[in-house]
Amino acid sequence: xxxxxxxxxxxxxxxxxxxxxxxxxxxxxxxxxxxxxxxxxxxxxxxxxxxxxxxxxxxxxxxxxxxxxxxxxxxxxxxxxxxxxxxxxxxxxxxxxxxxxxxxxxxxxxxxxxxxxxxxxxxxxxxxxxxxxxxxxxxxxxxxxxxxxxxxxxxxxxxxxxxxxxxxxxxxxxxxxxxxxxxxxxxxxxxxxxxxxxxxxxxxxxxxxxxxxxxxxxxxxxxxxxxxxxxxxxxxxxxxxxxxxxxxxxxxxxxxxxxxxxxxxxxxxxxxxxxxxxxxxxxxxxxxxxxxxxxxxxxxxxxxxxxxxxxxxxxxxxxxxxxxxxxxxxxxxxxxxxxxxxxxxxxxxxxxxxxxxxxxxxxxxxxxxxxxxxxxxxxxxxxxxxxxxxxxxxxxxxxxxxxxxxxxxxxxxxxxxxxxxxxxxxxxxxxxxxxxxxxxxxxxxxxxxxxxxxxxxxxxxxxxxxxxxxxxxxxxxxxxxx
Length: 482
Ligand SMILES: *[C@@H]1O[C@H](CO)[C@@H](O)[C@H](O)[C@H]1NC(C)=O
Known about the structure:
Blueprint: H1 6-22, H2 30-40, E1 43-47, E2 69-74, H3 89-118, E3 139-145, E4 150-157, E5 164-166, E6 191-192, H4 198-203, E7 209-214, E8 217-223, E9 229-242, E10 245-259, E11 267-270, H5 278-281, H6 283-286, E12 289-293, E13 302-306, E14 316-319, E15 331-332, E16 335-340, E17 343-344, H7 349-353, E18 357-359, E19 366-368, H8 370-383, E20 389-390, E21 399-400, E22 407-411, E23 413-417, E24 421-424, E25 431-435, E26 438-441, E27 443-445, E28 453-455, H9 457-460, E29 464-468, E30 473-477
Parallel strand pairs: 4-11, 5-10, 18-28, 19-27
Antiparallel strand pairs: 1-22, 2-3, 2-13, 3-4, 3-9, 5-11, 6-9, 7-8, 8-9, 9-10, 12-13, 12-29, 14-30, 15-18, 16-17, 16-23, 20-21, 21-26, 23-24, 25-26, 29-30
2-acetamido-2-deoxy-beta-D-glucopyranose binds next to strand 6.
């Protein structure tokens, strides 16, 4: 799908604007033994049963014990009550194709931002041509909104900034969601933002958003790269993350026209770096510090936690890429090298530096520069040569048929980030199984060396991922959740 033109988007804004104004309503031994042990530790020995995602929700051993913590579940996993269709092949194939759309939009936006940088000053005249595609790889959390607070399931997204929810009276369109739709009339803490307010004009510099005005009320429009969008009133409201984490005057979008790939969620929780993101708006309390653990599909102890609170001391931090993060609300981290089965791939450092790399909670499969991916793929294929290959699927081109195997030895993959941070991926971060007869290497290559790389959520699963935005760094610790 090509990124939509700003004309189409502008038409949406105009028509929504018209409709809104008309009715004036406007997330062995000796050396040999040593060598053999070393060799063993370079492989995951896995049983077939652990390759396919479980269709049952694993109950969590410990409850959400941390402070300022929200429970995170996979939108297509059995632990998610909004999940009705089981995670079958079709859903997985769809996930991969929507993932590609998200990747293209991140890359387009990155390119657009780079352009913006060149013509600094005239930014307002440029079309906001691309946002981030929502895709299906997202994880969801529940937050409270309004007074009295009611609970809403939002997809959380480090790749976008504005938080919005579908909002009564749904002047144009609200898609079907699981929770009752948020109704400002039933909340004593809701208020509209006027067109004159500074926050209204600030909106237009938030990536992917537009502003408008109707009966002196500020309108927002946010469009994602997959043509999903939300348009409505820009408003403020009381946000309740946990009973002790309450924020008055939280700026958000009260969506009157919402269409696209949002599933049955009520909207989106933006965790980017822009001043309007949830991270910035809660900075006074949490110091722009948050962490999460994305569970595997059947895991039930994932979390999204705000503040420094109980971050494990095993976290290793890598600095944000110094040159890239300024004009962009995305989180850039430098990759330096990759090892497969204990062997460091020979990839020149400049390969990773050409376009940089973003860490994104919503992209499913990690995208590498073409030269890096081809080195990874050759090493992986070579070490997997004893297994029967299977056809490629969508973006994944290195697949195996394990249907006649009981245990497999899979080479371990480690990613080296700048700051001496080595991330050893587990099996869930290495393979993406469509079925036992089609289990693929969970990485893909970008088509051009100039496309930004993306460290996706398959590889982040089970790690404690810590964003110290004020400190300019991002950290990883294994074993954050299951
Ligand atoms: C917000 O603006 C809309 C449209 O003008 C209006 O219908 C609604 O009553 C306003 N809400 C409040 C609380 O002022």
